[in-house]
Automatic annotation (TrEMBL):
The keyword Nucleotide-binding applies. GO terms for molecular function: acetate-CoA ligase activity; ATP binding. GO terms for biological process: acetyl-CoA biosynthetic process. NCBIfam families: PRK04319.1 (NF003313). Its EC number is 6.2.1.1. This is acetate--CoA ligase. It is an enzyme of class 6 (ligase). Keywords: Acetylation, ATP-binding, Ligase, Nucleotide-binding. Signal peptide: none annotated. Residues 486-564 form the AMP-binding enzyme C-terminal domain. Pfam families: AMP-binding, AMP-binding_C. One of its GO terms (cellular component) is cytosol. It comes from the Bacteria.
Amino acid sequence: MSITPTSPPTSGVAPNFTDYDGERSRFSWSAIERRLGPAPGGCNIAYYAVDRHDCGPQRDKVAFRFVGPNKGAGELPVTEVTFGDFAHRVRKFTAVLRGLGVGKGDPVFVFTGRIPELYVSILGALRNGSVVSPLFSAFGPEPLATRLRLGDAQVLVTTEQLYRRRVEKIRDSVPSLRHVLVVGDAGSITDVPDTLDFHSMMVDADGDCDITPTCADDVALLHFTSGTTGTPKGAVHVHGAVATHYATGLFALDLHPSDVFWCTADPGWVTGTSYGVITPLLHGVTSIVDSNEFDAERWYRILEEQAVTVWYTAPTAIRMLMKSGPELAHKYSYPHLRLIASVGEPLNPDAVLWGRDVLGRPIHDNWWQTETGGIMIANTPGFAIKPGSMGRPLPGIDAAIVRRTGDGGIETVETPNVEGELAIRRGWPSMFRGYLHNDDRYRRAFAGDWYLTGDLAKRDADGYYWFVGRADDVIKSAGHLIGPFEVENVLMEHPAVAEAGVIGKPDPIVGAVVKAFVSVKTGWNADDALRRELLGYSRKKLGASVAPKEIEFVEVLPHTRSGKIMRRLLKARELGLPEGDTSTLEVGG
Ligand code: AMP
């Protein structure tokens, strides 16, 4: 089954991308780079996103509408920031960093909610040639400290509340940290020792500070992603990625200057940075930022009140909206909505159709990951959607289904509908350029010309890709990638825990919930009190988005003969599935 695209009659715009084969054959990355033009030094994301728009009528156009907390009746409160005002603040933040002696290549981390200062800090740091890493504000102290240490953070921008709750506890464990800038909860900060007041520094900073020249290969962003073993991996991205951000904004998100665009992802995740910050700015469109967490009615209200035209969201959110029932959706109307796209987890065909039937637009699934830096495969408004498929590779992107041959090589699978690993041909501009401090892991991610994504997929005879699953044990919960190892480590720090094995337990709404199997040390009772204690303990250390939701006590965990916990087997047992090949299982596991 497929859904043929149509534009709502009121939209008045034609899709950017309708001729799939023609556009792919005409396409070149250098043409996109020419369209962006030269920047000081060659290429700088902030130059294209900010400086370029600080002139003419564009200066007075609204860049961001920050939607604040609900205040009873009436429309939701909104704070608007124009492109001109934003550019001024960004230049000031560049000056703040420069004044602190923070320069090109120095790592600047941002750990705040979705407040204007987050956006100013990201762009101001990019403009300064510094390397930016936004971290998710729901992280507990452990994931926060791990990432700051791995990334050799020199500067951290955070809020007063997060400083007191999370940062203060771990600050001493990050020796590289030179400056902590704190955004006061109510204006300037009071009584937060050894920190700098973000706002007073901004007041004194030079609003005309120039940009640091950078080139396409200079490092711009650091995004952490989870693996099955070891600490999180820091994926390194360069300024040249901007060509992908721009092109995908054109082809996959179909951005037009008149659009009101809402990306619901938090900039603490790669989607929120690439598409919640950079891409809408590149295209000079007005972007919605919601400061609050998910709330079905609030989201419908935002779509209506803000007259959102292009909406980029995630399957978990869509399923939660579906669960809240059609009546709630029908209390509001969405005549302006032209395109809905979704990413991060498999999007069930029901959800695609729900979009069409309830919101008036089908949902366009697309695929990418932290390492790819931008959308690679998509259902776009220019061609028929096959519900359940991730779509087709965008112009400039070559994808393949491959099989590893065992000698480090691969062979491509040409027959349609045969499962293999999804691979992307090297060379797209937003390809990650390394895993921080882990060259070996980076090298192993490639075979010849191909980047191996770790996802299993199939391609059908029409060239559409279909997601099958992950080739490894990482967990996708509510769209967030969670490394089981990071969770197991924290559990094992608890004095009662002998061993822990963590899996994703399938869940109809969030895709998978984190479930831990725990064996306890002698002398401890594996009872409800201990379970509650461990749940609370991991929540405090890891934060609610990463901590396990379920804990099951077991006598022993299954191990391989080499001592690794067999998570695959835990999962098979949990689901009542065949245990598969257990020849490497240690006797007694
Ligand atoms: P992250 O690096 O956190 O963005 O997670 C990337 C992973 O999310 C991919 O490797 C996939 O496993 C999963 N993913 C992303 N988009 C999709 C999609 N459209 N369908 C299925 N899985 C997806």
